[in-house]
Predict the structure of ABC transporter permease.
Amino acid sequence: MSELSPATGTETSDFSNVGRARWWRRGFFASQTAYVAAALIVIMIVMSFLSSAFLSPGNLANVAKNFSFVGIVTLGVTLVIVTGGIDLSVGSTMALAAITCAIVMQAVSGTVLDNVPLAGMVVSLGAGLGVALLIGLANGLLIARVGLSPFVTTLGMLSIVRGLAYAVTEGRGQAPTGPDVNLFYEITDGNIAGVPVAIIYLLVLAAIIGVILHHTAFGRHVFALGGNEKAAALTGIAVERVKIAVYVLSALSAGLAGILMVGWLGSAPANLATGYELTIIAAAVIGGANLNGGIGGPAGAVIGALLIEVIRNGLVLAGINAYWQIVLVGGIIILAVLVDRLRTLRMTS
């Protein structure tokens, strides 16, 4: 059987219509992000029945703020994973960027910069993000130019940067001070129309990265590296530049999240974000980023980070020991990779 196409006036078979329908269904259901989003909705519904406090405005605001820090860094790490790399240094980068920002704000307080509106805060934010940029640049150069393993390089950087954080502070937390400190807290821990600013930063960054990945040459190059790096090089893609860029972006996202956490906590402790590497990578993998490279995106990063926080929050409300959260995150990573593997085998069979 056939029907007349209103667009072209030609006949199209029912089989082509069925094919298009199947393509739509496969395109949607083939996405791990779709499965995770569905799981998130189910879990939130279950949590709302198990605890009346789950959907309370205070708890939802707490969930939103907590997951936004992890989500921001997950966006950057997802870029690295899409290229087939890994960044284990993001937790330490968060700490050192936050500490640098707080220390510089202390240092410029009482200087001539106090007479220049916002100067002290701008210098402090620039210093924190600048340190993060240098860490990402070091990672990128060692991996792209020297040819070191991403895992080993970023694992070593994790230790170096964390050690610097403890050495600089001698293990003591650093609190921001100065005439701009109140504004600093507003832009890092404030609210806009009742929405935490950290969430707004996360959504804006996710939108920007989505546009970059799917509508720019740089985004196509990122996916090309993850798909086949040698083939990408043969087509003229500047492989080294792309690799360095994604590690810099990953570190900058970690630096931003660390600075936002200073506003939330009121200080920058040396152990800030310890162990966050596992949670961040878990969020990326759960959201659909393939550790082999070539697959991933900002939507999955945000949903993966939110899913982990919702589960963590649910465990707290249920009175379950917090140490079980670590076990759960590891189990979720393995399950997500297993589901992705099974789905891939089914699609290729």
Confidence is low (pLDDT under 50) at residues 1-25. The longest helix spans residues 119-145. The longest strand covers residues 2-4.
